[in-house]
Amino acid sequence: MQLTLIRHGDAFAGLHGIIAGPKGCRGLTEIGRHQAAALRDDIEARGHVTADVLLASVLPRAIETAEIIAPALGVDVADHDCELCEVHTGEADGLDWAIYTERYGPVDMTLEPDRLFAPQGESWNSFHDRVRRLLDRLAATYPHERVVAVCHAGVIMASLRVLLPFAHSATGAQLRPSNTGLTRWEHDPSSGAWTLHSFNETTHLDGIDAIPATDPPESIHDH
Q1: Three-class SS state of 138
Q2: How many CB atoms within 10 Å of residue 48?
Q3: Is 3 helix (H, G, I), strand (E, B) or coil?
Q4: What is the structure's pLDDT at 168?
Q5: Sequence-separated (6 or more) residues with CB below 8 Å from residue 130
Q6: pTM of the predicted model over 0.90
Q7: Which residues have C-beta within 8 Å of that of residue 183, sequence separation ≥ 6?
Q8: Which among 23, 40, 77, 188 has most CB atoms closer than 10 A?
Q9: Percentage, residues of the chain above pLDDT 90
C-alpha cells in the first residue's frame, strides 16, 4: 500500500482559538481553500499524487479539503473515517481554550500521557493506540492500493511516533506538518514493514500567504 497523508488546509478553529471537534469545527478559512486549490492544481499539473482510494476524517476542515482535491485525483471521497481525526476532545469540543483551562486546568498530554483531554475524550496514549490501529487496518484493507487520506497534524505526527523509533527530544525541536502538506508512507504486505518516503511536501504552497497561529498544547494541533 502507498499511503499519502495530507493535512487539511488552514481552518477557522486555529484562527479563532476554538477546540474544534465535530461540533466546534467550522471548516476552512479562505486561505485554507486557496491552499487546497493550490494542491489540487499542482496534482493536476504534475501528476505526482495518484489514488485508488480517497479518505477523509469526519471533521469539516478535512472533508472540505478532500472534496477540493478530489477532481485532480479522479476519485470521490470513499469514506469519512473517525480514526483519521485529531485527538478526540470529548466534552471540551467547541469550547474556547480559555474556558477549557478554567474548567479542566492546563494540559500537557506528553507529561500526563494517560490523562483524558476531557471526559469522553482521549489521552495521549489512547490516541497513539488508535492511530496505530488505523494504520494496521488501512494496510490490511488496501494492501495493494494507493490510498490518500486527508487528516490532521496530530495523526501525521503520531504515525511517525508509532512507526519510527523516535525518542523524545530534550531540545524542544519538533516536526510540524504544514496545512495541506503531504507525508508519504509505503507498506510492504509481504514483510509488514513501513517505509517513510517523504514528510511535509509543500512546494504547492509557494507564494501563498500563511496566517500566523499560536501553537496549541502538544498533540492538539488544529485548534
Answers
A1: helix
A2: 13
A3: strand
A4: 60
A5: 83, 122
A6: yes
A7: 4, 5, 6, 156, 159, 177, 196, 198, 199, 200, 201
A8: 40
A9: 83
- What pLDDT sits at residue 213? 44
DSSP-based helix, strand, coil % in the chain, nearest 5: 35, 15, 45
Residues 6+ apart with CB under 8 A from 134: 81, 83, 84, 155
Long-range contacts formed by 66-70: CB under 8 A, 24+ apart: 66/150, 68/9, 68/33, 68/36, 68/37, 68/39, 68/40, 69/6, 69/36, 69/39, 69/40, 69/43, 69/148, 69/150
Chain segment 133-179, per-residue pLDDT in tens: 999 999 999 999 999 999 999 999 999 999 997 766 566 677 889 99
Q: Which of 115-129, 174-188, 207-221 has the lowest mean pLDDT?
A: 207-221
- For residues 169 and 74, what is the distance between their CA atoms, to the nearest angstrom? 40
Copy the grid coordinates of residue 86: 485529531
